[in-house]
Amino acid sequence: MTRTYFYGSEFEKLSNDKKFMSMIKEVGDEDVNYRKLISKRIDGTMFDSVSATMKINDLGMTRKIVPYFDVLSEDGFVLFSKKSVSKPTIEAFNASLSRLRANGTYDEIVNRYYGL
To answer: 27: helix, coil or strand?
Structure first.
């Protein structure tokens, strides 16, 4: 697991279980876990589907690492800076995203680029 990442509320509950946490090894950089997988130093790791797909592609590991299954079902979020992004811009973004989700375009884009 990558230190400082949030893996969802279920994982957060499990993080209080000493037996569970004894099986977890933390690293400071997510790339370390990909390299550990390739070298068979760990059996698995957790990442969100989109960022994992992008990172696996960036590292040229598409034939070496494959997703096993989705564990986390919580929503992701887009974050904006309060200093540099106006409220009308955020409202326009939210409205556009809602339209893309409603008409199926969002799912088409995700499937095209990430195969999810």
So the answer is: strand
Q: What is the mean pLDDT of residues 37-61?
A: 82
| Cβ contact 102:35 at 8 Å | no
pLDDT band at 71 (very low <50, low <70, confident <90, very high): low
Annotate the chain with three-state secondary structure.
CECCCCCCHHHHHHCCCHHHHCCCCCECCHHHHHHHHHCCCCCCCCCCHHHHHHHHHHCCCCCCCCCCCCCCCCCCCCCCCCCCCCHHHHHHHHHHHHHHHHCCHHHHHHHHHHCC
Q: What is the pLDDT of residue 92?
A: 94
Closest CA to 52 of 4, 107, 114: 114
- Identify the pLDDT of residue 73: 56
Task: Compute CA distances 83 → 38, 88, 107, 112, whole Å.
Answer: 41, 13, 31, 33
